[in-house]
Amino acid sequence: MLSYSYQIFQRGGIIMKYNLKKYLSLMTAFFLVLLLLPIRVWASTPISILYTNDVHCGLEGYSKLAAYRQSLTDAGISTVLVDAGDHVQGELIGTMDQGESIIDIMNQMNYDYAVPGNHEFDYKVPQFLSLMNRATFKYLSANFKHADGTDIMDAYAIKEIDGHKIGFVGICTPESYTKSTPVYFQDASGNYVYTFSEDTFYATIQAAVDAAKAAGAEAIVAIGHTGMDGSTEEWTTKAIIENTNGIDAYIDGHSHEVSAGPDYTHMENGVLQHYSFFNKDGKQVFYTQTGTKLKNFGELKIEFTPTVQVTSVMHSVADLTDKDSTIEALITNARQRETAFFGTEIGTSEVKLFAKDDDGTWLVRHQETNLGDYNADAYLWRTGADIALMNAGGVRTNVNVGTVTKKDLISVNPWMNQVGVIEATGQTILDALEHGARFYPNNNGGYLQVAGLTYEINTKVTTSPVVEDSKGSFLSVDPTKPRRVQNVLVCGEPIDPNRTYRVAGTFYILQYSGDGMSMFKNCPVISGDYPSDAEVLIEYMTQKLNGVISAEAYGNKDGNGRIKVVDENRFVEVERVEPTHSAPGYIKYVCEIDGTEKYEELPKLEYAFLEGENGEWAGTNDVLKFRINGDETDLQNVLVDGILLNRGTQYTVRHGSTIIELTPSYLQTLSVGSHTMTVVYINGSVSTTFSVRRAVVGSGRTVATSDNSRVQMWSIACMIALMSLLVSAYYRIKKA
């Protein structure tokens, strides 16, 4: 042991000495006291942020989510519950009361924050604002504002949890203009009164992030309804992350994809690809999204160590068993009201009609399907138009085999959009098809299902020629670029760009520029006196199909071949040199897609008789005429049976390719029967046969020639001898 004295400090000349052992004991006690003081502990329990997106009225998962959240609370884990948009629309329960039942359930769930998705505006902006006031949770959006720039809702919120401040920033997609309905954001004069800040998109988001940090946020979680697959490139989540900094994690929606994080995962050619997103400072930002219909919900775990550490877990609702009884009762009540309102049986379906594949991925948004055909067929039948167009974003769910109710078909077209007919030129229709195919093969709500019309999408054209405005609405098709859509046929005939056609569809695309289809907005309306889209689907089944969706008509999942995808170069003729008898010709083609040139050789012309081949001369005063496709100036000789003829006396030549006429005076010298004529040109020759039946001698008098002439002469002699015998016999009898 140490027992010697140690000088610690000196005050006022008094030397204070402590035994070293006592000093060490005091210091140990001092540090133990410090450990007990209320200081921030970095090795804390992670904070759980539970999140949903694109629920689209898929209520059934809410009770399991509520039960899971309660289990975390019971375990002493702090939670936040957020939604990344598109929750009040997608099924009839949403349509029935324009989202109010959904908001009531979310209120009972104790959501903390939500961002408006594009479909939150489907019941028009005033109704969304009413729902926002009804909600006990807080809607956030940094970029959805009044047109004058004033805020409609807070751009961000800060929540303090376990002594840490987390900032939540809301972001809406500017695609809401076209993926809801553009006129909903305009006044009666067509002026936009709301904006999604598309012209200052990144700067507006960055300002919200900076403001949240300035307010003390230690971590920033973006809640965005912006998406990846099928979204406008400059408005994708990737683009947002790459053009901002300060965001630690991004909870996404809109594209209905499942990515647990930290990377964006996307299936490409059957292989799951991973993509990391980095901000302007080169820092990776955690990315996650849960899919759709509440088949999953996410759990983002944030831990301060002291740097922000983010992890996540994707929970499959199907794997959970516990349900919150209060939420389950609300869901049951909502579904009962929905069934009572829409549950009437109207027929049966022999086949499944597809909007989505069996795994829930969209089909109708990038290919023809039998349900897309059914929709367009119904519009065409009900209106009697020339063609019908159906935007794929309006086809919301499958129709299963078996009994079909009104609810089943209204769920396909849940918005009750007005069906109508307009007049549009073939060129306008071509532009609409091109606009619809601009994102192919990615999913696109503007992809057009059709009836009365067929078309092809050429994937060799990798870049769309469509020009859009800042809000995603169609402006034009760049005439210097090749089109993707080709071989458009109306009733089997090539579409005439200058002809006017009657086009059926919903006014969502035909009048209100939905999905950016602004090319139709000034087209004259022929009629709007039709039922809603869902009612037309019901009438088509009950009246036209007599209550049966047959396998014969709709048995092919991929439709009836109205939309074909081809992968081929498209060549156009730019030059042609016709062949001659002396040299071949060619046709030059240029691929209008990539500029590749190719040539087609046209073989040298072969000499041929155009007239008079295998002709016959019957002994008249007429010439025997032949016409050959050679140039008269290249003619060298004419031979009959190998004997060279004299031009002028035995034959004559006229223009008209080459017209050769054998003279009667020459023909009468030929024996009766078949002869061969050969016409010799500079670059070749051609032969044919002709026949002679008789020859002319003198004017109006014919004589037999060759062996046949001798037969005729002997016949006459015999006739004379016979007559002489008859006369001689007559006189003998008379004398007797």
UniProtKB/TrEMBL annotation:
Keywords from the named record: Hydrolase, Membrane, Nucleotide-binding, Signal, Transmembrane, Transmembrane helix
GO MF terms, alphabetically ordered: hydrolase activity; nucleotide binding
Family assignment from sequence similarity: Belongs to the 5'-nucleotidase family.
Residue runs in coiled coils: none
Gene3D superfamilies, alphabetized: 3.60.21.10, 5'-Nucleotidase, C-terminal domain (3.90.780.10)
SUPFAM superfamilies in UniProt: 5'-nucleotidase (syn. UDP-sugar hydrolase), C-terminal domain (SSF55816), E set domains (SSF81296), Metallo-dependent phosphatases (SSF56300)
Organism: Solobacterium moorei F0204
Keyword Membrane: yes
InterPro entries (alphabetical): 5'-Nucleotdase_C (IPR008334), 5'-Nucleotdase_C_sf (IPR036907), 5_nucleotidase/apyrase (IPR006179), Calcineurin-like_PHP (IPR004843), Ig_E-set (IPR014756), Metallo-depent_PP-like (IPR029052)
Pfam families the UniProt entry points to: 5_nucleotid_C, Metallophos
Keyword Membrane (UniProt): yes
Domain 5'-Nucleotidase C-terminal positions: 362-521
Membrane-crossing residue ranges in chain numbering: 711-731
GO BP annotations listed: nucleotide catabolic process
Domain Calcineurin-like phosphoesterase as annotated: residue spans: 48-257
Name of the featured protein: 5'-nucleotidase, C-terminal domain protein
